[in-house]
Structure formats: structure tokens, C-alpha cells
Amino acid sequence: MINSLTPKAKPMFLKIRTLVLLSLLFFYAGAQTPETVLSAGAGVVVSQGQYYVDHSCSFSFDKISDTTSRKILLSGQLENVAVQDDIDCYWIKFVLANKDNNNNEWLVDFGSWTHVQAYYGDDVRGYRQKTAGVVLPYSQRDYAIGGRSLVMLDIPKGSELTMYVQLKTGIDYMERPVNLSCSVYSKSAVIDTENIKQNALYFFTGLYIVMFLYNLFVYFTIREKSYLYYLFIIFFALGACWQNTGYSIVFLKDISSFPAQKTNADVVVSSIFGIVLILFTRISLNAQQSSPRINKIFSGIIVALVLVVIPVFWGNSLLATNLSSLLGLITTALIIVTSVRAYRQKYPSSGLFLLANGIFMISIFVYLLLLMIGVGNTVLVGFLLPLGSALQIIFYSMALGNSINVLKRQNAESQGKIIEQLRLYSELQDKINKELEQKVEERTRELKESQQQMLQQEKLASLGEVTAGVAHEIQNPLNFIMNFSELNDELIEEMDTEVSDGNLDAARQLSGEIKENMEKILVHGKRVDSIVKGMLQLTRTDPGQKEMTDVNAMCEEFIGLSFHGLRAKDKSFNASMEKHFDSAAGNVSVNKQDVGRVLLNLFTNAFYAVNEKQQDHREGYTPLVTVTTKRNTDSLEIVIRDNGNGIPQKVRDKIFQPFFTTKPTGNGTGLGLSISYEIIKEHGGSIKFNTEEGSFAEFIITLPV
């Protein structure tokens, strides 16, 4: 390791040996290596020196500076020694001579070398070592300013300094050094240049931030998607400005791995930027209509830009960089072509888009041209791309604003035409409405009459279903009345006989029995009267009035009527009934006629369902219909449940629709549940159902209290 050469870790004789060796080395170097003279000015290029190609990257400073090994150094113009793609390590040796009258501090700029180890003589320690390199963490660089790879040297006036430098490069061909030369600047000149660069950078940064905030406000105002893509473009352009000028590392200096991962990050960010730029171009220039074929190619490029980052995760950054660069060239060319086509088709703001893209392309061309003719990386050259990008951003903003204005004008014209058409349509509609109103009134009157007839027919149909049950209900009390009436006749004859015979006590006893029988006749007569009144209510056509009604008694009455109605039609039918009445249910204000019809309809449907399931001859099946009442704080619930086949999934949305029925033709009108739903709704309540196909169905009636 190089650090093992530190004199502090050596005995005294090693220090003496090192000083003697370095003295001989410096003398030999001064005799063999041409010197580079430092003088006032912007800087000088170290072109003369010696070099060694370290194929295995195994030479150390001790080895390269040894008197026997240093003979392998080749003399030549360092500018003429091209860096080979398959070699990553070089050694160079050169001499710097300070002829400047004002400067003692100098900075050696090693360009884009990834790792730099510089060694030079020191009268105190024998030699000094300094490090630099573009992938070296910011805190470990000898002289950290911007993104430059600098080594600072203190060379007194009239003195010389011999340097040995190990140079390493990476795999990114776009940032590989071209040759082995380096540049030397006075420290003050570098600081002045960097101050100018920083001021220019702050200017562009402020411009980008203002543009970003303004267009962010516009985006939240109009919610136009093109502005959202444009905001991303501004963000990436700002990042590219800091990256191109080498100052991105200043912000990321606390991330020690950032310089080493710069190439990978560039590929990922470039792919994201390419995708956003394509989306922005598509929507801004309406590529789907102006250039449909290119629009399809754009879709393929977006997929390729996503896939191009995969080699990065496999450690093949060079392949990813090459593919990303190729896709970038294709994308740029297609965007220019799309802009030209949109301009020919006179699409709004296409000229500004073409101008924006053209200016940026010109800035790239001029930048590359200046580098090719050897102008060097001056402040002007360094800011050509940010300047072109800034102008592109500004013209993009102007194009978007103009597009919005054009669209507003077109919308205003379209709205004017629409308003005129609406006015004509309104006049025509008024005329048609007047004619239709008369027809609607006539049809409404006819519909109401038909509706009343349908309701009456449904009432009669419901009445017909329970007639047999009603007859059965009336027959029982009538039998009691007839039996007690005949018994009273016999008792009266016996009483007359006893009176005639003078047995007054026996006559009084018979009179009491006759009185008890009369009371029973009265009770059963009232029962018949109640049933008849209920029948009359079902047949009434007037809406009737609400009255306080015993809910439990009403449920008891109509479940019996429904059951006996089915029994009258089918003597083989039988079903169990369970009644879970809440003693607190009490009375509720309802139209007993209407709610009674609802209960009668639901009970009839329940008995029909269990009877239908029973006819399937299912073993172990017992038909069961349950009615439950429950009083809540502000409502009363009536739940009617059967264990029939349930309601099929496909018809659940239709059961409350008029004329819909699952019963065979002739067995149902399809109006029962529809009318029931309307009746409960008119009472301010609701009717819902729960069901499981093949298992059960239950209807829940909720009435306000």
C-alpha cells in the first residue's frame, strides 16, 4: 500500500535513504524530463513529459520511481498519447517550473480521470501525495471546487517541481480522457473563473425556478396535462444544468457513493427525461393526428427507455449508456420531424415548438464544434447547453401559453355557434313542448284511470286468493252461533215446561244457561263482523284514513287468512307457522286496509314459496313461515321469513318492478310487490329483503312510529 511509505512509520536510516533516492531522482528527472514553464495567463497545458502504460494497474510509486524501473518510462508529447479503451491505468512524469512573478499557488486540472494519485518532492517529508478524480468523494479531493479534479501545488518563484502521477479511468467512454495531458492554472484564475460560473449558474437556476413556479400555478389553475409534463421537463433541465457545469456534486457531497454511481444515475435520469419529453411532445403537438406513425414509434421508444436501465443493475453501465445515447438521438430526431409536420399542418404553436427544439439542437452543435476545434471548456462553452436548454424552456412556455389562447378562442367560437344552435333548438322545443303538454295531460289522465283499474283488479285478485280462507274463518264462528242457537231453543222449551210445573229454581237455572249461550253467540257474531269488515276494507277503492292499529293482531289475522286461502286451494298443503311478537310492539298509525294488503301479499308469497319447495319431494324438509315484530326507538319492524327456495340472483333487482313475477302464467299478476313497495313508501317506511338461494327469503318492513 502507498501509505506504508510514510516516513513516520520508518526508522531513521529509511528516511535518509528516501531523501537520497528522491534527490537523485529529481536530478535525473530534471535532466531527462522537459519542463513546463508556468507564467501569468489563463493556464498552460502540460504536453511534454514521460509516461508508462500500466496494463495490470499494479505499479506503485516506489516501483515507478525506482532507478531501475523508471527506465521503462517513455518520453513524448503527452497530448499525442491517446488513451486506449482497454487500458485503465497510466503513469506520467513531468516537471513544472514557476517563472511567474506574482503566483506561488497553482492548480493542476486532470480533467475526467476517475482516480488521480499525485506524488511530488517535499524537503521535510521527502515526498507528498495528493488525490483527485471525478468519482472520488468530495471530501477526499485535494482541492474541492465545483466538479473539477484538481490538485493544488505550492511552487515558489524560480523553483521547479517534479511530479509522478498515477491516472485511472473508468468504463464510461463518454467521459474517458482523450490523452495524457493535463492543464495548470493559477489558483486565483481558477477562483475567478468559478465565481463567474457560479453567478451564471445562479442566474439560470433562478430562471428555472421562476418558470417552474409560474407554470405550477398555471397547471393548478387549468389542470392541463401538458403543463404537468412541462413541469417535469423544467425540473430535469435544472438538474442537467447543475450536472453539466459540474456543481451537482456540491449538493450531493454528503453522499459518498454518488460520484461512483454517476454513470448509472445518468442513465436512469436520462430514461425518465426521455419518457417525459415524448409524452410532452405527443400531447403538445397532437402527435396521434399529426404524425400517427411516429406516435406509434414513440410508444416503442418509451418501452425501450424503460428496458435500457436493466443492464445498469447487471453491472453493464457501458451497454446501458450506449443504448441510452442511441435512443436519445432517435428521440430527438423524431421530435424535430413531429414539430415540422405539425407546423405544416398549422397546428397551434407548432412553430414555437419547432423553434425551441431547433435552438437546443443548435446549442449542442456549436458546443461540439467548439470542443472539436480546441476552444476548451471555457465558461462560455460550459454554459452553451444550459443556455440552449433555457431558451428551449422559455419557448416551450410561450408555445403552451399560445396553445391555451388558441384553444380558448376556438372554444369561444364553438360556444357561440352552440349558443345560437341552442337558441334555435329552444324555440323549436318550446313549440314542441306546448303540443306535447296537451298530449301528456291526456295520456296522464288515461294512465291514472288505467292505474286505478289495475289497482282495483289487483285488489280483487288478492281478495279472490283469500276468499276460501275467509269462508273457512267465517264458518267456525257461524257453526258456534247455529249450535248455541239450537241449544237455546231446546233450553227455552225446557224452561217453559219447568215454569208450567212451577219449578222456578230449575227455570232460573235454565235461564242462566240461555244467557251464557247468548253471550257466546254475541262473541262469535262480533268475530264474523270483524272478518266481514276486513273483507270490505280490502275491496274499498277509496284511500281510507290512518288509524292506530294493533300490529301483532293485524299480523295474526292476515297470516291466518293467507294460510287458509292456500289450504282451500290445495288440501294437501300444510306448513308450520311461528309467531314472535314483541309485547312492546303496541299500536302504530297506518292505513289498515293498505298495510293489510301488504301483509297478505307477503304471507301469500311465503306460503307459496314453501309449498313450491315441498312439491320437490325433498326429504326431511318442513315448510315454515315465521313472522316477527320488533319495536325500536323510532320505528317498528315486521319480518316475514320463509325457508323456501329463496330469490334467484338474476331477478333480485327486478322483484319490485311492476308486472314482474316468478310465478307461472295465471298464478300471479306481478303487481303485488310493486304495490306493496309503494304503500310502505307512502307510509314513510321501507321494505327490504334478505335471501339465500335454495335456503330462505325474508322481507323486512320498517314503519315509523
| Low-pLDDT sequence parts | 1-32
Label the overall shape.
elongated
Alpha plus pi helix count? 17
Estimated radius of gyration: 52 Å
Distance between the termini: 95 Å
Percent of residues in helices: 55-70%
Task: Specify the biggest β-sheet.
Answer: 7 strands, mixed
What is the number of E strands? 18
Label the structural class.
alpha+beta
> Could you report the average pLDDT, rounded to the nearest whole number?
76
Description:
The protein has helices at residues 12-32, 61-65, 187-222, 225-244, 248-251, 262-284, 287-290, 292-307, 310-313, 317-344, 350-372, 379-382, 384-501, 504-539, 551-569, 592-614, 672-682, and strands at 35-38, 44-46, 48-53, 74-77, 89-98, 105-109, 115-122, 126-132, 150-154, 160-168, 182-186, 547-550, 576-580, 587-590, 624-631, 635-642, 686-692, 696-704. Helix 4 (225-244) packs antiparallel against helix 13. Strands 1, 3, 4, 5, 7, 8 and 10 form a 7-stranded mixed β-sheet that branches. It is 56% helix and 16% strand.
